[in-house]
Design brief:
Elements (H helix, E strand, L loop, with lengths): L2 H5 L2 E7 L3 E8 L4 E8 H4 L10 E2 L6 E4 H17 L7 E8 L4 E5 L2 H6 L7 H4 L4 E3 L1 E3 L7 H11 L2 H8 L8 H11 L1 H5 L1 E6 H10 L7 H4 L5 E2 L4 E2 L1 H7 L3 H5 L8 E4 L2 H7 L6 E3 L2 E2 H9 L6 E5 L3 E7 L9 E4 L7 E7 L3 H11 L4 H10 L8 E5 L10 E5 L5 E2 L4 H22 L10 E4 L6 H11 L3 E3 L5 H16 L5 H4 L7 E4 L5 H23 L2
Parallel strand pairs: 1-6, 6-14, 6-15, 16-23, 23-24
Antiparallel strand pairs: 1-2, 2-3, 4-5, 5-9, 7-8, 7-10, 11-12, 13-14, 16-17, 17-19, 18-19, 20-21, 21-22, 24-25
Helix pairs in contact: 6-8, 6-12, 8-12, 15-20, 16-18, 17-18, 17-19, 18-19, 18-22
The structure holds D-xylulose (XUL).
D-xylulose binds next to helix 15.
């Protein structure tokens, strides 16, 4: 390595995810120069987690030990040191955490955090710092009662979505906090601060309680996403004294302060290294993908996830609107669809003899719009819309029991992408000139599937590797945090990052075909909802 390289700045991005703690280091040119991780189950077996969590006997309560995350950070930093990472070059760090999880700091923990002894590890020193040792995480769905209570208190599900960006969800932190207050009153009483997983991790680096950022704060059913302050009515319905327990939220680009002297003395970080607010893993992924205004990212995995950049959000009963992690005045949205790859594979097996080549050939050999045949393929109960079953319609909107194999393949793929577009538009998304569709995940290697995606959205499709996006996005956000206050936009700060690859452009007739078909799809979806409503 040349001398200049050895002095050049580094930026770290951490990701406290469900199963592991990861880190990437990028240099000033945004090249990844180091990656490392700690797997919770195998490297910290003393916590006896499976997939990083404990699923309790009721099957609804899912928690992770706070100290496991602390110990993982000790271990990760030791591994980075052993690998020769020069911590003195790190100018800024940031990170992300699995969204919604909550950490309860016991009274006195702030004192411990500000006086950490560099001769001992974090795990030894923070043993007694948590009033609730097992933190509820995003997989927890045990707070249905608290969700109902919150919606009743604010005036209904839609009203709650209008304020906080989402109707009440069991995993959202406010409902978890309400449950803790009711089921563990003594432990709850002895907490002086409540963090999200992201702000908890930032607190370790800061040596003080870190603010919750606007973007991850939007996953709590507590933040007013328009005023970007805690919603009084939501706080009151959840627990007393929440203003002081949560602290004031800050923009996700905020520099929280210099790194704690603990890390300077123990690992050789520079005193000038800055800690930039940590955020949720999905917002951090949006940063890692460098999503821009007008863009939509579609992750084609076991379940399909859609990320949107929004200017004018229209919260709805489905989907989530969060404050934007890279530009505090804007928004993002997240939509999840359960019937993704597994349904595509089932139809491939039934209609294309299990072959992706034949599946692709069916898409090539059938016309845009499928001669008016349209289908809904919900093998399991879908999230958006809440409908189950396979429903096929002929050009006269009559439900039919079967389609020819080739028509079935196109009906499936067109139907899936029409649904992604419809629900994105319902949250306020619109396709504008320059819109890009970023595709990622398993099915993004199939050119014909991506051609349909491009046609349905009437926009070019690019592919992007998302495997590390939350970590990478955190490193990018660390770099941007240093210049955000002087007005540099995120996209300018990270313009040296690798560009996504163009893989499909829309057919000239696509707009005509799919604008019409989208209206029909919406009508048919409404019909299914009416017919299947209990
Ligand atoms: C998002 C959600 C999950 C977690 C996973 O609402 O619950 O994506 O963030 O880490």
């Amino acid at each position: 390595m040349m001398a200049a390289d050895q002095d050049s700045p580094l930026y770290l991005g951490f990701d406290f995810s469900t199963q592991q703690l990861k880190v990437v280091a990028v240099d000033g040119n945004l090249n990844v120069v180091h990656q490392n991780n700690v797997q919770f189950d195998s490297e910290l077996p003393e916590f006896r987690t499976q997939g990083g969590v404990h699923i309790h006997a009721d099957k609804l309560t899912v928690t992770s030990p706070a100290l496991m995350w602390v110990k993982a950070l000790d271990l990760l930093l030791d591994k980075m040191k052993e690998a020769g990472l020069d911590f003195s070059r790190v100018r800024a760090l940031s990170g992300s955490g699995q969204q919604h999880g909550s950490v309860y700091w016991r009274t006195g923990a702030s004192e411990t955090l500000t006086n950490l002894d560099p001769d001992q590890n974090l795990n030894q020193q923070l043993q007694n710092s948590f009033s609730i040792s097992d933190c509820p995480v995003w997989m927890d769905s045990s707070s249905s009662q608290q969700c109902q209570d919150l919606q009743r208190a604010v005036g209904g599900a839609l009203r709650l979505a209008e304020i906080t960006g989402s109707r009440a969800y069991e995993r959202f932190t406010g409902n978890q906090i309400a449950k803790m207050r009711q089921t563990k009153p003594n432990e709850f009483q002895s907490a002086e601060r409540i963090s999200l997983v992201s702000s908890f991790a930032a607190s370790l680096f800061l040596g003080d309680y870190a603010a919750i950022d606007y973007s991850d704060g939007s996953g709590m059913n507590l933040l007013d996403i328009r005023t970007r302050t805690w919603s009084e009515v939501c706080l009151e319905a959840t627990a007393p004294h929440l203003h002081s327990l949560l602290g004031a939220p800050l923009p996700s680009t905020a520099v929280l302060g210099p790194i704690s002297s603990y890390f300077v003395q123990r690992y050789g970080f520079s005193e000038s290294c800055r800690v930039v607010a940590f955020t949720g893993d999905n917002p951090a992924s949006l940063a890692g993908m460098r999503l821009q205004q007008g863009d939509i990212a579609v992750s084609l995995g076991t379940s399909d996830t859609v990320f949107l950049w929004l200017q004018q959000p229209r919260p709805a009963l489905e989907g989530h609107i969060f404050c934007n992690p890279v530009d505090w005045q804007e928004y993002m949205a997240l939509l999840c669809f359960k019937n993704g790859s597994l349904t595509r594979e089932r139809v491939r097996n039934e209609c294309a003899g299990g072959s992706w080549e034949l599946f692709s050939a069916s898409l090539r050999d059938t016309p845009l719009g499928n001669n008016g045949y349209i289908g809904f393929y919900f093998d399991v109960m879908e999230i958006t819309p809440p409908v189950v079953g396979v429903h096929r319609f002929d050009p006269d909107d009559s439900e039919v029991s079967s389609l020819s194999p080739q028509v079935e393949v196109r009906a499936l793929v067109e139907g899936q992408f029409l649904s992604r577009r419809l629900h994105a538009e319902r949250l306020g998304y619109s396709i504008i000139p320059g819109t890009r569709v970023l595709a990622t995940g398993g099915a993004s290697s199939n050119k014909e599937i991506l051609q349909v995606l491009s046609d349905v959205f009437n926009a070019p499709v690019y592919t992007i590797d998302l495997s590390n996006s939350a970590c990478l996005g955190s490193a990018y956000r660390a770099l941007h945090g240093l210049v955000a206050e002087s007005g540099v936009t995120f996209s300018d700060a990270v313009k040296k990052a690798p560009e996504p690859q163009l893989v499909a452009t829309p057919h000239p007739t696509a707009q005509e075909v799919y604008d019409q078909m989208l209206k029909r799809y919406a009508r048919l979806e409404e019909r299914l909802l009416q017919e299947t409503r209990p």
